[in-house]
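Example: NADH dehydrogenase [ubiquinone] 1 beta subcomplex subunit 11, mitochondrial.
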Amino acid sequence: MLARAFARSARLSRPTTMLRRGGGGGSPVNEPGGYLFSEKTRVKEDWENMWYAGMFGGFALVAVGLYYKPDTTVTTWATKQAEKNLKEKGISIHYEKSD
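Written out as structure tokens, the predicted fold is:
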């Protein structure tokens, strides 16, 4: 029984068997004709310049806004609070260089 399974798997792995089991010719290749959307040369429409200006202008505004946004992280707040508490206690936060 085991020999029969090995013989069958060896028979199925032959390249000629794979060729016989293959499909037909397939679909014909549709070669490109050089036209995109039935236009030989690209024609820019009226709304495209406004869209480009709006999109890239919006990206620029968001980039500037993110660059100049205030730092509201927890570590910045905690550092400011710790400096304030140390200043109230009279402890200097700057270390003096010892010679």
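Helices lie at 2-12, 15-21, 46-67, 74-89.
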